[in-house]
Design a protein that fits this description.
With 333 residues, the chain is α/β, with parallel strands linked by helices. It has ten helices and nine strands. Strands 1, 2, 3, 4, 5, 6, 7, 8 and 9 form a nine-stranded mixed beta sheet that branches. α2 links the parallel β1 and β2. α8 packs antiparallel against α9, α8 packs parallel to α10 and α9 packs antiparallel against α10. The longest helix has 30 residues. The protein is globular. The relative contact order is 0.13.
């Protein structure tokens, strides 16, 4: 079956999925933004995929909000198989409708989001996924942007991967006048046709902090159709600190996961070289920032992020050396 034929059967119904872990208050506020202030002339399901253990009162309050809005409600607990990507895969098994909207448990949808989102799916049969922008994300200062161009983190094309495989430049998305095609969607609010993710599988490197998994999911969906960002699909991503991992672990994982994503996409030597340039650039940036804060501001902060970035770079170099050794051994034998 051809891609366009597979996607052309539009199901005007939406499953809104929250993949959550130990953020009951943030989740309640996020659910409220979905069940209030939104117009929907199509069936809507609210699905909670829980990696923690929500208390009965919180679940009761969420279900009550869903029913008051006329939404169906479903709940799945998978704390014994924790991981955000695994939660996405689990959600696809449980979701009852053809369009699946993944929302972080600390986002707030602005009014009109759901109705506008569904107009895109109704009008474009080739659309595999669509998402919006975070109105709280600040534009990086000019010097920071220039540095990110130099280290190949920031893409020169709107919505596309940079040469090194990163997604730098998302801070410009919300200032665009009209929707535009992209290589990937922003994980805090990304939707897909469920059929476009029929081949989505979990990956071992996303079992901990799942940095980059939105790119992994987007890449899977893009094989079935196009991806779109609409700057009028607005959310507030509050970046809640509750239940977040240590800064060092996050910084290390950011480097390692993007390296593994490039390997999974079959990146060649030139792109891997670009990736190493970007990773080393961030090591310099974070290390310099930590020194400056310690010496000039007399605040010993930023060291965890710098150490995590260096550890990530070290992990990548060891992996590349091991791969080159394996290739050399095979060529000799």
């Amino acid at each position: 079956m051809k891609t366009n034929e597979r996607l052309s059967k539009v199901e005007p119904a939406l499953s809104v999925v929250f993949c959550t872990r130990n953020r009951p208050q943030e989740l309640l506020a996020a659910v409220k933004s979905v069940t209030q202030g939104q117009e929907a002339d199509f069936p809507v399901e609210l699905l909670i995929v829980d990696d923690g253990l929500l208390d009965e009162q919180t679940l009761h309050d969420i279900e009550s909000q869903a029913k008051k809005a006329g939404f169906a409600f479903a709940y799945a607990n998978k704390r014994e198989r924790a991981g955000l990507l695994q939660s996405r895969v689990e959600a696809l098994r449980h979701a009852r409708y053809g369009i699946v909207l993944f929302l972080d448990d600390d986002v707030e949808l602005l009014p009109g989001y759901l109705a506008r989102l569904m107009t895109h799916y109704r009008s474009d049969a080739t659309l595999a996924g669509a998402g919006g922008v975070d109105v709280l994300e600040p534009r990086a200062p000019l010097l920071r942007r220039l540095f990110e161009y130099v280290i190949l983190f920031r893409s020169f094309q709107l919505g596309r991967y940079s040469w090194s495989g990163f997604g730098g430049g998302m801070d410009a998305w919300r200032f665009q006048p009209r929707p535009f095609k992209v290589d990937f969607l922003y994980g805090c609010n990304m939707s897909f046709r469920r059929s476009a993710l029929s081949e989505l599988k979990s990956a071992a490197w996303f079992n901990s902090y799942s940095i980059g998994e939105d790119m992994y999911v987007s890449n899977c969906a893009s094989r079935a159709g196009s991806l779109l960002v609409d700057p009028q699909l607005l959310v507030k991503h509050h970046q809640a600190a509750t239940a977040r991992d240590r800064e060092e672990d996050v910084a290390r994982t950011r480097i390692v996961n993007h390296f593994l994503l490039l390997k999974a996409r079959g990146a060649g030597a030139a792109r891997m070289g670009g990736f190493l340039w970007t990773a080393l650039g961030f090591a310099v940036l974070h290390g310099t920032g930590a020194v400056a804060k310690t010496v000039l501001a007399r605040r010993s902060t930023g060291w965890e992020r710098a150490q995590g970035t260096l550890k990530g770079v070290g992990t990548v170099f060891r992996s590349l050396l091991a791969d080159s050794g394996t290739i050399a051994t095979k060529s000799v034998s």
